[in-house]
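HUMAN: Can I see a protein plus its fold?

ASSISTANT:
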Amino acid sequence: MEKINRIFPGIFTIGNMLCGFLAIISIFDNELLAGCWFIILAGFFDALDGVVARFSKTTSKFGTELDSFADFLSFGIAPAFLLYSLRLTSLGRWGWIIGVVFILCGAFRLARFNLQNEEYREYYTGLPIPPCAFTISGYVLFCYHLWDQIISPGILIGMVLLYSALMISGIDYETFPIFPLKTKKDKLKFILIMIALFAIFVKPKLMIFPFGLAYTLSGVGKHIYGFFSSQEDINKTNERNSYEKI
């Protein structure tokens, strides 16, 4: 029975990898929106892979490594190929350099995650690569749904560079809730995820990008707030020490 349980997470990992391959084929055939949908579908397979592995307690080093290969294909190479096909080709040499930067940062993020994945952590260090690909693909769908084109190539290029930096940063991001949802924080996470999934199911072309952007900004906002809070604590400590010396 245990061997059978170990198969299920692997099925979702293979689904993730297959979607990444189909995304690249679609983009190569100039079916850019289809490529975006395959990248997003790969994100759902990746999420299910992790949830099923934790819920069934069948996590393994082999599964972690295989999942990283799938993620690198679906959320590193496929989005970079999508971006290059959309607007980066007009930049010439700089276009493929930006694409390579995204791929390298994604590879670094995955390698760091594998080294830190010995035990469950409450936070991810750096923005995970799946939300990067998820949000960028959502932005493409968002623009084509409203304006039938990418309205600003500069915004797209800026997003690529921003997400590349966030992946290798030290900013903390929330992880998935731990079942059976014993803490209030995990329950709140689960409710927010259900709300996001419902909104995406109703209006996928409009909702994927805003929710992906919200997750991105949540880590940045928390990091900025923590920085100023720590500075304020340091100032108060210095003032108290100065007063005690007097």
Notes: The two ends are 72 Å apart (CA to CA). The chain has eight helices and two strands. Strands lie at 123-125, 172-174. The mean pLDDT is 82.
